[in-house]
Write a structure and sequence with these properties.
With 213 residues, this protein is α+β, with helices and mostly antiparallel strands. The protein is 32% helix and 30% strand.
Length: 213
């Protein structure tokens, strides 16, 4: 991802927020056979306050990626959407796409089977606790044999990134009034209404105007 000073996202707390809110990640590696990509849910390492992440892949994706032997690129995609030039008013303009993305790169360490189980447990808890009747990993009708058999088909890893690129392209290069017009359009009706993107733009706009005050 090409970086642009106008859109750089450098705040670790904000990057953690994007990762936490958008855990479905794309995992990319370069192998002798070419580029390989997989898609998995990823969590922040709850024992760290940096950008260290934990996750798992299903076998044989560990072999396909050469997990633990070469660099991985893990991509998180935040809210994104189309921005019409008509929302800028009567000025020369072209369409664009607003988005937030975080790229973490590094060589992961392979987790022990016990650590992998803990990560899988956390992963289930992360998504099930909001359900009316949560089904946690160790809860009946699951039993230990069932859980351990499924876990054996996965390989867990922890990645502390050696390279980070994060970008928040949310019309920060436009006048405040123009940004407000885009947000209003995204919050309204129509084929490109996008409330999650509008909320992300308001967050960025607040940081921008706050920095100026």
């Amino acid at each position: 991802m090409r970086q642009n000073p106008s859109f750089t996202l450098a705040d670790v707390t904000e990057m953690r927020r994007v990762i936490e809110a958008n855990p479905w990640a794309t995992i990319v590696s370069s192998t002798d056979e070419g580029l390989v990509a997989s898609h998995y849910a990823v969590l922040l390492d709850h024992e760290r306050d940096d950008l260290t992440i934990v996750a798992h892949v299903g076998r044989p994706d560990d072999l396909i990626h050469g997990l633990g032997e070469r660099e991985l690129l893990v991509i998180f995609q935040g809210p994104h959407g189309y921005v019409s030039p008509g929302w800028y008013g009567d000025v020369p303009a072209v369409p664009t796409w607003n988005y937030t993305a975080v790229h973490l790169a590094g060589t992961p360490e392979i987790l022990s089977p016990e650590e992998n189980l803990q990560v899988l447990d956390r992963l289930v808890e992360r998504f099930e606790t909001v359900m009316p009747e949560p089904r946690l990993m160790w809860q009946r009708p699951n039993d230990s044999a069932f859980v351990e058999r499924l876990a054996a088909g996965t390989v867990g890893f922890r990645l502390t990134p050696s390279r980070v690129i994060a970008k928040r392209k949310l019309s920060q290069n436009k006048p405040v009034e123009t940004v407000e017009s885009v947000i209003t359009a995204l919050e309204g009706e129509g084929p490109y209404a996008n409330r999650s993107l509008a909320a992300e733009m308001r967050r960025a706009q607040g940081a921008r105007t706050g920095a100026r005050s």
